[in-house]
Design brief:
This protein has 5 helices and 6 strands, in the order βααβαβαβαββ. It is α/β, with parallel strands linked by helices and 173 residues long. The chain has a 6-stranded mixed β-sheet with strand order 3-2-4-1-5-6, with helices on both faces.
Amino acid sequence: MTARRLILLRHTEAAPAPFGDFSEAADLARPLTQRGEETARRCHLWLQERMPVPDYILCSPAQRTRQTLSVVAPQPHKPVIFSAQLYNASWQSLLQNIQATPDYAQTILLVGHNPGISELARILASRDSRTECDFTPGALAIFSLWKCDSSPVSLGWSDCDALSLSLDTFSRP
């Protein structure tokens, strides 16, 4: 049996927008706090010890997600897709982006925002209660998409759903 891996990562802690500025531009520009940078370093070390390097990365264009990614995967394998569709996306939109991933990708890292990313983790892990607790900044949910090596049928990312994935790990490094 071989597995494709899906890593869902909520960006780490970010500074608030300037007082009274509720614009999308101000939200997109929010940087990581020092604590957020430290959490991202812990995520990097945790993933480095346990996971293959992602060969396909989906990331929101917000500054806090880009900064989280730059620490978690400082030298990522290409491609890295920064998509406005991932900014504050619903779980359905996040899943559609994963399902559109080319099948050559073996390990996907998706760096996104709440509530969409935690809802997606809960939906995909519907048979596992570990994601029911807080999906705090820097939380990781790692799933496997399994296929049998002897089977002519190969599951691709377009097949990705709650029935084809199993939750391997939920962690808050």
